[in-house]
Amino acid sequence: MRNAVIHESIMTMLPSKSDGTWLSTQAIRARLLENGHEQMSAKYVLRQMRQLEEAFKVISMEEPGKRPIYWQRALGAGAGYKSAEHMPASEAVAFSLLERLTKVKLPKTILGDVDGLFDAARQRLKVAHDGGQLHKKWLDKIETVEALFPLVRPSIDDDVFNAIKDATFQERIVRVRYHSAKTKREKTKPEWKRVAPLALVESAGLMYVVVQEMDFPPDPAKGKLEWLRPALRLDRIAEVELTKERFNYPAEFKLGEYVKTKKAFEFLVEGEAFRLRLAFSNYAGEHLLESHISEDQAPPEWDDKKRLILTATVVNSLKFRWWLRSFGPDVEILEPQWLREQVAADARQVAQQYAAC
To answer: Which pick of 103, 119, 169, 297 has the fewest CB atoms within 10 Å?
Structure first.
């Protein structure tokens, strides 16, 4: 089983004749180790290369009087599991969608293993027989649209993104210079910090990495019972250095639980969850009869003004307040009173800004 995995990884990294380059046995070994494979000798890698050569998947070149052996992928030996002509059109559509939605989030180790499939899928959908064109057209019949007003998000440095993805996959510690809102505002250079990248999360068009701050371990004597695990925006990472130091992935960390309980991606969470009661007019909230505000949303009611009354438990965050304000005058907060007063004060301030109109 291990040999099969090694063979797949080797085939994805080897250049083809059209590339015009070769890889030495030592270079292949170095890349395998870099991609997270277990320690192995150069002799072991050479045996694997000879096996692939016997299967006509690779070709070798030895320069006269020199020790290194160089390798290329043999003509017709694709990097994926299937060549384009053997891939069903339905699979080609699936891999094309996968590439569209996830390619940017894949670390090099995984991308190397599936890039051949992406290439095969593109080639397969160029074929105009056996109904393949109907499959290809499907890709032009689906799209995703942001629910909120679309913003031009800050770009992420490719080197930073790739290093973070690789470190997250390989469970390696990185050193980063991270711009907080304060250092960004004051235009000061941030200090280096050692972090263990645990997970990647995309929220509202921004990409985050959840990290464990390695220089601030728990200290029960000082009342620190847990690791510091903030979510860092990738576009705010100015520099990153991939170290050789690996970390033990925390068994108690569960990404789904982190997102749900920490509310790290709700933006500026204030206080505990509370019971919310809203009155919607002009049909503004009818979509919430199907897409609920929360899991415990109560059955709908209608008051004597024919307004839709909905009750649910929410967390007071910046995202929540953006959502609430998006309804304008078509929603009234009935409960809690403190939120009703807060929104009323905001409305009076807005009215004052436009008093001269």
So the answer is: 103
